[in-house]
Design a protein that fits this description.
Elements lengths: L5 E6 L5 H13 L3 E6 L9 H8 L3 E3 L4 H6 L2 H6 L3 E7 L1 H9 L5 H8 L4 E5 L3 H5 L1 H12 L3 E2 L3 E4 L5 E5 L3 H12 L9 E6 L4 E2 L5 E2 L6 H12 L3 E6 L11 E4 L3 H11 L4 E4 L6 E3 L19 E3 L3 H6 L8 E8 L3 H12 L3 E6 L11 E2 L1 E5 L2 E4 L3 E2 H19 L2
Parallel strand pairs: 1-2, 1-4, 2-3, 4-5, 5-6, 9-12, 9-14, 12-13, 14-17, 17-18
Antiparallel strand pairs: 7-8, 10-11, 15-16, 18-20, 19-22, 20-21
The structure holds cytidine-5'-monophosphate.
Length: 402
């Protein structure tokens, strides 16, 4: 699968460095050639000897060596690779990358490389969620740096949360996806919302809408097919979880919002869910009984607007934020208005008037509203629309990487 591919693996400091050994073994098993740079911090956790034994190559360390510089300078080291992988990428190394620093062999190679770079961050949850780290991630994403993970789980520091380095198998999968042709979104994190929400009235009744989740699920699958790391947050639907997509199931709008915020940061978010605008002000703790002839009155309160919340998420705002506008009249005008009101980048406008059969159907007809105006897309299956949107997203992320 990776025969003939040359990987430059940079191992920075952190307990997750031991997983880099496993990654080397797996890369070698797939036929890749692995050359490794061990930072000073990395060498505190794994020895140059074990890295050399597994990679079958000399290991490059920070120790300044005249022979190394003449045999294999940092420029050649970084250029003679098809892909540079940083695993683990510590908060410190990412900060240095974002700032363009070059004060050791790893950072010098990263600054000198003309090859794609993929990072696998690993750190304590608080460090991962720190605004400084988030800003660095954002900067690196803008430059087209690919990212895999981190995931959530037990951390070496004894805390539990996000910051755990992606497993070697997942990093390997991301690398393989990158090399597979067409993997235009490899290393890109995406969030998709889909389906309706259910707003409880009592333990057995709820308010809902006719959304089937078909379009949102198709978008999640299309983004994953291009190699993106997709997190789908889905309301109750009959749609199966798309393959290769991390799916979180929720019921209510508030649960959907929490799951979306927990999925950040992502580079692109597509809000395709038909989120209930209102929910019952109170949920009856037991099934409401018929008492006499009078029907109960339902008081409603507004739900949070997930799309708008993501738009206002500051340095956690997805770089490309896409909403839907399901309208039954004045489609384009309302959608243009909605793009501004919600603060998102694009809106997919679709006519859901009863005669169209779009709600629950397999076909869709949409108009893409961007800053530049409205584009009519010819009617197509929801799958085909999802594929077209995924390609547009890939075009946009490629163009805006600077
Ligand atoms: O305001 P309206 O519901 O028409 O906006 C539609 C867009 O906003 C969709 O992208 C939908 O997913 C999103 N939305 C949301 N949270 C809400 C309401 C709508 O994310 N509470």
């Amino acid at each position: 699968m990776l025969a003939g591919k040359r990987i430059l693996l940079i191992i920075s400091g952190g307990i997750a460095a031991y997983k880099a050994l496993e990654l080397i073994r797996r890369l070698k098993d797939r036929g890749a050639a692995v050359r490794a740079i061990l930072t000073r911090g990395g060498a505190e956790f794994v020895t140059p000897l074990s890295v050399a034994a597994l990679s079958g190559e000399k290991v490059y360390t920070d120790l300044f060596s005249l022979t190394d510089e003449s045999e294999m300078g940092h420029i050649r080291l970084s250029r003679e690779a098809d892909l540079v992988v940083v695993a683990p990428a510590s908060a410190d190394l990412m900060a240095k990358m974002a700032a363009g620093m070059a004060d050791d062999l790893a950072t010098t190679a990263l600054l000198a490389t003309d090859k794609p770079v993929m990072i696998a961050p690993a750190m304590n949850t608080m460090m991962w969620q720190h605004p400084a780290t988030l800003a660095n991630i954002e900067t690196l994403a803008r430059r087209g740096i690919l990212r895999v993970g981190p995931g959530a789980g037990d951390l070496a520091c004894g805390e539990v949360g996000e910051g755990r380095m992606a497993e070697p198998a997942d990093i390997l999968a991301a690398i393989e996806t990158y090399f597979r042709t067409g993997a235009r979104l490899a290393g890109r994190a995406a969030l998709v919302t889909s389906g309706p929400t259910h707003e409880a009235i009592d333990p057995v009744r709820f308010l809902a809408n006719r959304s089937s989740g078909r379009q949102g699920h198709a978008i999640a699958a299309a983004l994953a097919a291009l190699g993106a790391e997709v997190h789908l947050v889905s309301g109750p639907t009959a749609e199966p979880d798309p393959l290769g997509v991390r799916t979180t199931h929720v019921q209510s709008a508030r649960e959907m919002l929490d799951a979306c915020l927990a999925a950040l940061p992502v580079e692109v978010a597509v809000c395709a869910a038909a989120v209930a605008d209102w929910r019952p002000a109170e949920v009856a703790p037991a099934k409401m009984k018929k008492t006499g002839a009078a029907a109960p009155k339902l008081a409603l309160v507004a739900n949070p607007d997930i799309l708008k919340t993501l738009a206002e998420a500051g340095n956690r705002r997805p770089r490309l934020l896409i909403g839907f506008a399901a309208e039954t009249q004045d489609l384009i005008r309302n959608a243009i208005e909605k793009r501004k009101k919600k603060g998102c980048d694009w809106i997919l406008a679709n006519d859901v008037s009863p005669g169209t059969g779009i709600f629950g159907g397999a076909e869709n007809r949409v108009h893409l509203i961007t800053e530049a105006g409205a584009e009519d897309w010819e009617p197509a299956s929801k799958r085909a629309i999802a594929d077209r949107l995924a390609q547009r997203i890939a075009d946009h992320l490629q163009q805006s990487a600077a």
